[in-house]
Design brief:
Length: about 210
Amino acid sequence: NLFTDAQEAARMGSYPHESITLAQFRELIEYFLEQGFQFISDRDILSGLDAGRHYLLITFDDGYYANYRALPVIQEYEVPALFFISAGHVSDQRAFWWEVLYRERKRQNISNDVIAEECSSLVGLHHRAIERYQLECFGSKALEPKSDLERPFRPGELRAFAAERYVFIGNHTRDHAYLPAYSTADGVSQITTAQTLIEMMTGIRPTSIAY
């Protein structure tokens, strides 16, 4: 995720590991450009890269709506970035489960360390088991996004974003699936359904996956 500054991240109470500020993102790009790195896309890798040069691929996972904030920065420096989309979260408009967990436990004044332990206990489960657990713990509306900063793109927003020059789109499964928890058939379905949904929403068929 991307926040305007640390104060916004703290105010929104977002999942801590996602709290990257625009200043930090800009600093990262400037540093590696100064070191002589060439920023590339997944398509550049498929086309072949010259040996002896230094390359860097910027990636964002999940499909947070706030990823649009990266756009002015990557346009300014003319560097590509690859955004891996959890397609079902966009199409269904479901909140990401780790955001739900952090949001609801912070309301209960639970410490970050305890929340992190609970998160670790859930991460290897089937997405349906995780969501069922959260609905039981937090109620029937728990999976509804509560703010722009925790929600995924909407389909129309993703289509407009994907059309931008320096934006590249990848597959992050349909439901942010931890694939070892799925049967082979269900794992294949998670990948192929995401391909179809992303192509329907953006007109782009991904050539890369973050699994």
